[in-house]
Design brief:
Strand content: 15-25%
Radius of gyration: 22 Å
Order of helices and strands: HEHHEHEHEHEEEHEHEEEEEEEE
Number of helices: 8
Strand order of the largest sheet: 5-4-3-2-1-8-7-6
CATH architecture of the largest domain: Alpha-Beta Barrel
Number of domains: 2
Structural class: alpha/beta
CATH class of the largest domain: Alpha Beta
Distance between the termini: 36 Å
Shape: globular
Bound molecules: alpha-D-glucopyranose
Mean pLDDT: 93
Number of strands: 16
Low-confidence stretches: 1-27
Length: 439
């Protein structure tokens, strides 16, 4: 793990992630298969996915961490008996998500509260056996993804706050479970059996998105999760299934994508992201409002402009955006989330070409970013302070025009270090895109 790729984020030059491709990995002991390389290419081309955090926690309306903050696990579990999301319709979710321009869904199969959203045979604590709803949500979602041409990724928590065999870490201590002895081997077997079900019974799963490694303090009480054999199991069951792990560390051998939480690669406003940027395809996950799971008081949704800027800047950094929605306890996506999906979709239908399959920007700028296709660079002007837009590099520009309107030329002058665009006025568009053509 010594061969990490460090993007130099200082100054204006930003090293793009165009050289991520599966030919090399950050660790010599793991050689990705041809199937993985293909999935990596497809994943990176998609650029936009929707994260869904949904479980019995939605009933409490306090986010997916509610169990961590007080209830006994056995009291909390009683909610399952009342979970009847009458308005859940996987096809409606998939259609709304597809219309937004997103190309994949990452769904919480089992979060830290230990409740499984499919008909697992490894425990009764699941959507079919423990609720009056009795429907296998992952089955319905995998069918809907297939029918709507979306790829399915599954979030899978390493943490389980409700099982006595889980080797407890820093979180989720509840009085009814703390005194029990853990059984790592048993718990590991349980997880591997669950993963086997998920990767056997639900069609192609493009990614398993692990989370929770950080529950054990790597300095004080390091814990060996024995990941290599678990990763090998995933790859054996579905050779094209990517592995991502939200551990906030430098990537481990066997991982196929690198995840960043609440920050774009190279930024660290939320405090989780001190890891180096690897050569792997990158993904940043973030929320539309504040919390991942449904939280009743969390109505502070980012506006459409902010979300589109986030998506564009993430693509500019050569990464995918995994944008989260927390469905309501009745199974519907919140109305505001649906509005945002619709707005983003409208924008993506016009400008998606400047996002999908592009490479990241060769420079960093406050006013915006750029994305690239061969011979074409899309200058995304997002927050301009001036009509003069300096772009480092690009001294061999042949033409500059409004994206999609080749006749609407944009004046420019070429200097020694780059190109300056001279805009007629400071644009107020969500994203004023200038296309540069060059060699
Ligand atoms: C964190 C949280 C979790 C959430 C995840 C999404 O790890 O523990 O609740 O699912 O981030 O990135």
């Amino acid at each position: 793990m010594k061969l990490y790729f460090f993007a130099a984020l200082m100054g204006t030059l930003f090293l793009p992630s165009l050289i991520w491709a599966g030919e090399t990995t950050s660790d010599q002991t793991y050689i990705p298969s041809e199937e993985i390389k293909k999935s990596q290419r497809e994943f990176a081309a998609d650029r936009f996915g929707i994260f869904i955090h949904w479980g019995i926690y939605s009933m409490f309306g306090q986010g997916e961490w509610y169990l961590n903050y007080g209830p006994r696990a056995d009291e909390y579990a009683k909610a399952a008996k009342g979970f009847y999301p009458a308005d859940f319709n996987a096809d409606q979710w998939a259609k709304a998500i597809k219309d937004s321009g997103a190309r994949y869904i990452c769904f919480t199969s089992r979060h830290h509260d230990g409740f499984s959203m499919w008909h697992t045979r490894q425990s009764d604590y699941n959507i079919v056996d423990a609720t009056p709803f009795k429907r296998d949500v992952i089955k319905e979602l995998s069918d809907a993804c297939r029918d709507n041409d979306l790829k399915l990724h599954l979030y899978y928590s390493h943490i389980d706050w409700t099982r006595p065999d889980y080797p407890r870490g820093r979180t989720g201590h509840t009085p009814d479970l703390d005194s029990l002895n853990y059984d790592w081997k048993g718990y590991r077997r349980f997880m591997d059996n669950q993963l086997t079900e998920l990767l056997t019974n639900y069609g192609p799963i493009r990614c398993i998105w692990f989370d929770g490694w950080w529950d054990h303090d790597e300095d004080k009480t390091p814990f060996d999760w024995e990941l290599p054999s678990q990763y090998a199991l995933v790859h054996k069951l579905q050779p094209g299934c990517l592995i991502g792990n939200n551990h906030h560390q430098n990537i481990f051998p066997g991982e196929d994508i690198q995840i960043f939480e609440r920050d774009r690669p190279g930024e660290n406003t939320a405090g989780y992201s001190t890891q180096d940027i690897s050569l792997l395809p990158l993904e940043t996950c973030n929320t539309m409002n504040g919390m991942w799971g449904y939280k009743i008081v969390d109505t502070n949704y980012k506006d459409t402009r902010t979300l589109i800027h986030y998506l564009v800047r993430t693509a500019g950094q050569g990464a995918n955006l995994l944008l989260n929605i927390g469905p309501q306890p009745n199974g519907e996506l919140p109305a505001v989330a649906l509005d945002r999906l619709r707005d983003i979709g409208e924008w993506m239908r016009k400008y998606g070409e400047t996002i999908y399959s592009t490479d990241g920007s060769l420079f960093k700028a406050d006013w915006g970013t750029s994305t690239r296709l061969p011979g074409r660079t899309f200058i995304h002007i997002l927050s301009p302070q001036s009509t003069e837009i300096f772009i480092p590099g690009y001294t061999s520009v042949k033409d500059a025009f409004r994206y999609g309107i080749p006749d609407e030329k944009v004046a420019y002058t070429v200097g020694q270090d780059g190109v300056t665009l001279h805009l007629p006025s400071i644009p107020e568009d969500i994203d004023y895109i200038v296309e540069l053509s060059h060699n």
